[in-house]
Design brief:
Rossmann fold; 13 helices; disordered N terminus; mainly alpha; 4-stranded parallel sheet
Length: 276
């Protein structure tokens, strides 16, 4: 039986989970990476935006393990679109890993932007991106003040489909969990001691009231991970991928389109070739 035939008989999302040994190896590899990035830049403090979600919680824990809690500055940056439970969990994450942290309300800053250009209030995505980019500005304000690096919290799944705000949560100095699919993020989060209420929370980018990642994307993360691993990165044809995980071919094609159309987000802004 060929690999393609084996995949086609699965008819469920791929299990991309890591073994216990692999979790230990990833933990060691990522913490070493964080130390290397800090040493190379000659910086003292790692600045991590803690949202109450699993990605930022994992990165906060990894940074604490890599550097010691005293060298990590957590920023909790709520706005009117964030619920109290999520923000309480963000603070809880900082306290779990014994991180110095500040809570900074971004609402008034966002309001100032939208007052300067009121039309933006009527565009949900534009206003949501302002919230995310405001957090990025605050990250760098703290990092510049404390001779720090901004440590990113983006994972492999979101990067491949462009599910991040350009010059927002994508504006960082390094991406420690860039090689982890969302399934693996949850695994490693539990491994490093992230509270279960955070590890199992429904993901949200916190861009507007009631927003969730899976509802906005129209696909569950396990299925998305599977399509990315099989088709986008693995080269398995559309039909075999669709049959293997039990989805319509159109779903696979849509994920492929997300990957292709978001290429500009994963690249340095282009310029023309030299004319000579």
């Amino acid at each position: 039986m060929t690999d393609e035939e084996t995949i086609a008989q699965a008819e469920e999302p791929l299990d991309l989970s890591l073994t216990d040994a692999e979790l230990g190896d990833r933990h060691e590899h990522i913490t070493a990476f964080i130390r290397e990035q800090m040493d190379a830049a000659g910086t003292e403090t790692a600045v991590v935006a803690i949202s109450g979600g699993v990605d930022s919680a994992l990165v906060a824990g990894l940074a604490a393990d890599a550097l010691g809690p005293d060298r990590v500055h957590g920023l909790v940056m709520p706005s009117e679109v964030n619920d109290d439970e999520t923000m309480s969990d963000a603070v809880r994450v900082a306290e779990t890993f014994e991180l110095p942290h500040d809570v900074i309300e971004v609402g008034p800053i966002v309001d100032a932007f939208l007052e300067a250009y009121p039309e933006g209030r009527n565009h949900q995505m534009a206003a949501g991106n302002v919230r995310v980019r405001t957090r990025a500005v605050l990250n760098y304000l703290v990092a510049n003040t404390e001779n720090g690096l901004v440590i990113g919290t983006g994972n492999r799944t979101e990067a491949l489909i462009g599910y991040f705000t350009k010059y927002g949560d994508g504006a960082v100095d390094c991406h420690p969990i860039a090689n982890l699919y969302k399934q693996q993020v949850r695994q490693l989060a539990r491994h490093v001691g992230v509270p279960e209420s955070v590890a199992s929370r429904t993901p949200t980018a916190g861009m507007w009231v009631g927003q969730t990642d899976e509802e906005e994307l129209g696909i569950e993360y396990d299925t998305l991970d599977s399509i990315l691993a099989l088709h986008v990165e693995g080269g398995v044809p559309v039909g075999a991928t669709a049959r293997g995980i039990g989805v319509e071919e159109a779903v696979v094609e849509r994920v492929r389109a997300l990957y292709e159309h978001s290429a500009h987000k994963r690249q340095v802004p282009p310029g023309p070739d030299a004319p000579y």
